[in-house]
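User: I'm new to structure prediction. If I give you an amino acid sequence, what do you actually give back? Let's try with this one:
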Amino acid sequence: MLHPDNVILTSAIIPREENEELAKILKVPLNEDGFFLEAHVKLRPVDFATDGVFLAGMSHFPKTVEETISQAYAATSRATKLLSKKQLEIEPRVSSVDETKCIGCGLCASLCPSNAIELLLKDEGRKAHVISASCKGCGLCGASCPQQAITMQHFRDLEIAAQIKAYGGG
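Assistant: Good question. You get back a string of structure tokens that encode the predicted 3D arrangement of the chain. For your 170 residues, that looks like this:
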């Protein structure tokens, strides 16, 4: 038989059922419990891996009102910083598509983690097109392209081979 000093009763906090659908729309991850997952717990606690999307409060995990308010201030600050700029700088490392080689299979678009590739209908058929502002330069699309129609700017095969040769590797 138990003889506790205190018995604390609380209702369970569970994530909203709509979280999974919203996570797919925003391209953001959920943790194993179904709450939204931040980009980095210490370095970017209110940022998602998807740029420009922020989280605060109970969407993240169960927390106190004080923690929720602090996190809301932080998310507001991060969003205000972005919205106050007239222009945004993007990374120069982005993919580019050689439309003469592209067969429009769509493999690159289906694998792109940042949803930066779209298939456009051209006179020659479907062709991949990179949305430069969304591209994070991961190179997954170029590595998976069966026609080698996608290359990373500043990371083309000839450039990499030249670097290897310059350092005595080839």
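You can read the tokens as a compact description of the fold. Here is one thing that stands out. The chain has two domains: 19-83, 95-166.
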